[in-house]
């Protein structure tokens, strides 16, 4: 059997051209994996015709962009180039993915991290557990409770104007966000990209950061159908299933609070609906942010 013609890409490092990797990259601009692989075959055929065993990353990107423009449209071509320029740059991207328990944050975070090659994905529950080791329950009882039961730690003196479930949740979350803030400060110093996901990412704690730092993208994942949300809890959390389902009303109340707080700030919300793949909308928002960051450089 004749061996495939191999082409190496010379960029920061020398890498073998892969049709599969290119197909995965094209998912960021809306291609299905099969459609992306078909497109990558055309690129590979062009590279064979050039009879070059080594091609520069810039030349390869220009070939791909030209094909995208000719076969589809200029917008896709420009988006692809912008994403590749970001990959080659030192521009950090900090993605904050908020949402209630069972909204699908962790799955989406892993998917987008894989798409972009972001190595740092941190769940706020890890931040909470670290803080619990440092701060005892006597000092911060809210922190040592679950987000949906933190109201039970409230002292008798609190305003009746506020729902106690939400007030307890906010008290619980504000301590965790001290740790999240430290993560973002460190990421800025080291100029590295990071994804932080978790229920504790209340928009109110990020108002100043979002205004001052264009590198931050805040998104809340919503589940409009409460029955679907309940089903998610049953499927994803086998060990805690009964505990979560028995407190579903509290969890749902926190879900609605997160969504409302996000919407009143005109921040993006992605709705998880049966029959749709939420990752496409997330990719679209991330690509828009990357285009904005690269364009401003």
Q: What does this protein structure show overall?
A:
The chain has helices at 19-26, 33-50, 57-71, 74-88, 105-116, 124-134, 164-190, 207-212, 226-236, 241-246, 248-264, 278-295; strands spanning 8-10, 14-16, 54-56, 94-99, 120-123, 194-198, 216-222, 269-271. With 297 residues, it is α/β, with parallel strands linked by helices. The protein has two domains: 8-88; 94-295, 3-Layer(aba) Sandwich (Rossmann fold). Strands 5-6-4-7-8 form a five-stranded parallel beta sheet, sandwiched between helices. It is elongated, with a radius of gyration of 22 Å. The N and C termini lie far apart (48 Å). The relative contact order is 0.14.
What is the β-strand count? 8
What is the percentage of strand-forming residues? 5-15%
Structural class: alpha/beta
Order of helices and strands: EEHHEHHEHEHHEHEHHHEH
The helix fraction, in percent, is 55-70%
Which architecture of the largest domain does the CATH hierarchy give at level 2? 3-Layer(aba) Sandwich
Number of helices: 12
Mean pLDDT: 90
Write down the CATH class of the largest domain. Answer: Alpha Beta
Which stretches are poorly predicted, pLDDT < 50 over at least 5 residues?
A: none
Main sheet strand line-up: 5-6-4-7-8
């Amino acid at each position: 059997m004749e061996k495939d013609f191999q082409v190496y890409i010379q960029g920061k490092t020398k890498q073998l051209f892969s049709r599969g990797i290119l197909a995965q990259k094209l998912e960021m601009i809306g291609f299905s994996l099969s459609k992306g692989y078909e497109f990558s075959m055309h690129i590979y055929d062009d590279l064979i015709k050039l009879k070059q065993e080594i091609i520069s990353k810039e030349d390869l990107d220009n070939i791909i962009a030209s094909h995208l423009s000719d076969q589809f449209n200029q917008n896709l071509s420009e988006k692809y180039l912008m994403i590749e320029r970001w990959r080659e740059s030192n521009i950090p991207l900090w993605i904050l993915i908020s949402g209630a328990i069972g909204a699908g944050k962790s799955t989406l975070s892993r998917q987008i991290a894989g798409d972009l090659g972001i190595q740092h994905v941190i769940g706020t529950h890890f931040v909470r557990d670290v803080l619990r080791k440092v701060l005892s329950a006597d000092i911060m009882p809210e922190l040592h409770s679950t987000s949906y039961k933190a109201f039970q730690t409230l002292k008798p003196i609190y305003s009746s104007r506020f729902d106690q479930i939400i007030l307890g949740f906010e008290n619980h979350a504000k301590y965790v966000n001290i740790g999240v803030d430290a993560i973002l400060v460190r990421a800025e110093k080291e100029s590295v990209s990071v994804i932080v996901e978790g229920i504790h990412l209340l928009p109110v704690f990020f108002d100043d950061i979002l205004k001052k730092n264009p590198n931050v993208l805040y998104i809340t994942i919503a589940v409009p159908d409460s029955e679907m949300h309940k089903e998610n809890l049953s499927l994803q959390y086998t060990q805690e299933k009964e505990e979560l389902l028995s407190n579903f009303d509290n969890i749902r109340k926190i879900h609605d609070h997160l969504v409302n707080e996000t919407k009143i700030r005109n921040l993006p919300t992605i709705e998880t609906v049966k029959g749709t793949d939420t990752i496409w909308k997330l990719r679209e928002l991330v690509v828009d942010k990357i285009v904005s960051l690269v364009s401003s450089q």
